[in-house]
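Design job #97: recover the sequence.
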């Protein structure tokens, strides 16, 4: 049985993330989507518990995918969740440098390997930071996020 950890800030989880979770669901026996605090991103729109709740609702159609929130090192979360590897999405070359460095550091720290999956081209322009900006300025993001996220962004939850 192979289990994958899909970590991220997920503030909020968007359709690019959901597409990746769906792909991982078909590739692995078990997938844990973990909302983690990113020390380089001080401000958050949603609490960690809210992020995990929205992820859980968004992946409810995928029986082998679960959502958690955690703090600390991602390699420790791999151990805590009994997963075997880290999986990250790549939207394009701009993501690659930082993701490669984190993957190499995490392998150095713990021996855990990171696998990269390409984001679907139709989602490659979506970023949580843009979703937050558009939403805060009154624009619609309903076609970029799962309904569980959209309803909270519009205050209908
Ligand atoms: O969605 P993001 O912001 O790209 O996610 C980044 C995240 C949360 C996965 C990354 O910051 C992370 O792994 N944080 C946990 C702390 C940690 O382990 N840092 C060392 C990684 S080399």
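Job complete. Output follows.
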């Amino acid at each position: 049985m192979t289990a994958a950890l899909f970590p991220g800030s997920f503030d909020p989880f968007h359709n690019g993330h959901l597409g990746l979770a769906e792909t991982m669901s078909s590739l692995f026996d078990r997938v844990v989507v973990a909302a983690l605090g990113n020390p380089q991103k001080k401000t958050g729109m949603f609490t960690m518990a809210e992020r995990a709740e929205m992820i859980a609702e968004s992946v409810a159609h995928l029986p082998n995918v679960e959502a958690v929130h955690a703090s600390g090192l991602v390699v420790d979360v791999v151990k805590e969740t009994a997963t075997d590897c880290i999986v990250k999405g790549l939207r394009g070359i701009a993501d690659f440098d930082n993701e490669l460095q984190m993957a190499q550091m995490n392998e150095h720290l713990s021996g855990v390997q990171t696998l990269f999956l390409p984001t679907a081209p139709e989602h490659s322009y979506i970023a949580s930071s843009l979703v937050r900006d558009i939403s805060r300025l009154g624009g619609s993001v309903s076609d970029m996020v799962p309904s569980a996220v959209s309803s909270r962004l519009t205050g209908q939850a």
